[in-house]
Amino acid sequence: MKTFIKSAVLATCLAVVLIITTGATQNSSKGESAGQAPEIGMDALSALQECFTTVAENTVNGVVSVKSYAAPRQSYGYGNGGYGDFFSDPFFEYFFGNPGGRRHQPRAQSAEPEERQIGLGSGVIISSDGYIVTNNHVIADADRLEVTLNDNRNFPAKVIGADASTDLALIKIEASGLHLIPMGDSDNLRVGEWVLAVGNPFGFTSTVTQGIVSAKARNISSMTQSAPTGNIESYIQTDAAVNRGNSGGALVNLKGELVGINAAIYSQTGTYAGCSFAIPTSIVNKVIKDLKEYGAVQRAMLGIRFSELTPELIKKEGIEGVNAGIYVGNIEDNSAASESDLKIGDVIIALNSASTTNTAQLQEAIAQYRPGDRVVITYVRDGKRYTTMVTLRNVKGNTSVTRQESFDDLGCSFSTPSDDTLKKIGVKAGVQVTDIREGGKMKRAGVKNGFVITDINNVIIRNAKEVEKLYKSIVSNDEYDHVMFVTGIYPSSMKKTYYAIDLAD
Questions:
Q1: 168 neighbors 133 (Cβ within 8 angstroms)
Q2: What is the distance in angstroms between the CA of the first residue and the CA of the last residue of the chain?
Q3: What gap in Å lies between CA 382 and CA 380, rounded to an integer?
Q4: Which residues make Cβ contacts (< 8 Å) with residue 176, sequence separation at least 6?
Q5: Cα(473)–Cα(376) distance, rounded to whole angstroms?
Q6: Residue 39 confidence class, pLDDT cut points 50, 70, 90
Q7: What amino acid positions are annotated as catalytic residues?
Q8: Which residues neighbour 248 within 8 Å (Cβ) at sequence distance 6 or greater?
Q9: How far apart are CA 472 and CA 373, in angstroms?
Q10: What pLDDT sits at residue 102?
């Protein structure tokens, strides 16, 4: 069935090209002057319309609504997976709908906080047995996820894995025979090509908008002179209208193939203003495969500190033979680059066959590989072009597989403190550490049984589930120190105590 639909869509679109081409030839034979735009007949317009409607009708059933729910909790800048907003620039927004109208608004504590809906996003079905790709920021703060299909069926969803650096997440529902969107190749997208965006803006389900590819390999931070986020930014920019609630939705080409996951907009008002950004499938494919297989992304590192080549840098360093590329400012010890022929001052212009003339292109190219993969780096030195073979490594400087750490690695259990205990130490909520085990991270940090945890990394803790959520959020992000700063009280001594638990240990 999938092959038939894809073939039908492609055949319809090819028919448009044939009709337009035939019309142009006929008009030319009638004596149209060179350079004059040919008239497009009604047959061509009807075929073009059919092309768009066929793609839209087949895509909406592969896009779902993702609702997130959580108990109110007080937080100090640790939204979106524990590390604040992806963009610090106030003009950039996720398409993540918030029914309450406020984002991460602190609420008063209560003994039994009631669950509430904290957001509404979108997701794309990528397998008939229920795997769905969405944005990390759609699911990051949720205690519970609910997925609604286009036919109004509802399913609870579980998180298979998430990656804050690429803002992608893989979730799953227990269902079969689902309509999926075939995966396309974003590398083949061309600027000016028509695309459709499908999602749930403002809760309006199955909304389809149309635009063109405005640019590729767009790095938002560098374009707006924002502080570097440490995230991987290599977006497809389009002018397809999208708004809050479109987060995690589909960007498809006129073959009906998925070419991107909608993720952000540029706006001075918080609503669509002409620029929208999608994560390309060149990145999506690799990240989702890693999350499905390992529970964590196998992130490859080249091990350099760099900057984009500019006219000022070219003049300052006396660079010859190249006008655009990645200038190697430093090479880290025990890295892939340190074992290669690269030197400080070289200008990298390609990785394998992919051009790397800017930061976004370099990030996108490397994001498609795993530690241990060998790639060819093309670079310019003293005006001459060279190549070198590099074996990429992970953040620890080796090629071993990174797996999602188990919550059990903390080496303890958690229980709910009694009301008397909470009253005695003067807090309203917390979790009590029990069953400290040898070899666990808690034991190595010096934590003892009976310790009541009140907050971790400035986030108030009410139950063991919140501890687990913060733990997974911290260990999944390679751009921050993997440390839990734990605050609590020992009821026996009434002494407030602090621990720094090294999760990378």
A1: yes
A2: 50
A3: 7
A4: 128, 129, 130
A5: 34
A6: low
A7: 137, 167, 247
A8: 66, 95, 121, 122, 123, 124, 133, 134, 135, 138, 199, 261, 262, 263
A9: 27
A10: 38
> Tokens at residue 70, please?
């959580």
Amino acid (one-letter) located at 319: I
Partners of 326 in the beta sheet?
Answer: 308, 348
pLDDT tens for residues 428-477?
889 999 888 888 899 889 998 889 999 999 899 988 888 888 888 887 77
Strands 235-238 and 275-280: antiparallel
The mean pLDDT value for 268-277 works out to 87
How many Cα atoms occupy the beta-carbon half-sphere of 396 within 13 Å?
9
Report residue 79 as tokens: 């939204």
3-state DSSP assignment of residue 413: strand
Q: 425 and 463 in contact (C-beta within 8 Å)? A: no
Residue 406 CA to residue 386 CA, distance in Å, equals 44
For residue 483, list its beta bridge partners. Answer: 502
pTM higher than 0.90 for the full model?
no
**pLDDT of 55-103, one tens digit each?**
999 999 999 999 999 876 544 333 333 323 333 333 445 555 554 443 3
3-state secondary structure of 396: coil
Alpha-carbon torsion (67, 71, 72, 77), positive or negative: negative
Please choose, from the candidates 400, 414, 405, 409, the residue with its C-alpha nearest in 3D space to the C-alpha of residue 450: 414
What confidence category does residue 236 fall into, taking pLDDT thresholds of 50, 70 and 90?
very high
List CB contacts of 426: < 8 A, sequence separation 6 or more: none
What does the pLDDT read at residue 115? 80
Q: Which two tokens stand for residue 256?
A: 């009906």
Task: Tell how strand 459-460 and strand 258-266 pair up.
Answer: unpaired
Strands (E), 154-193: 154-163, 168-172
Instruction: List, for residues 391-440, the tens digit of each pLDDT value.
Output: 999 988 899 887 766 667 788 888 888 888 888 899 988 999 988 888 88
Q: How far is CA 463 from CA 193, 425, 453, in A?
A: 50, 17, 9
CB neighbour list of residue 149: distance below 8 Å, 6 or more residues apart: 61, 64, 155, 178
How crowded is residue 215: how many other Cβ atoms within 10 Å of its Cβ? 14
Both tokens of 422, joined, read: 């909470």
Residue in 338, 354, 351, 394 with CA at minimum distance from that of residue 370: 394
Q: Read off the pLDDT of each residue in 247-256 and give the average, rounded to a whole number.
A: 96
Distance of CA 40 to CAs 10, 15, 47, 55, 369, Å? 20, 13, 11, 21, 45
Q: How far apart are CA 162 and CA 166, in angstroms?
A: 9
Res 188 pLDDT > 90? yes
Helix residue ranges per DSSP H, 180-231: 220-223
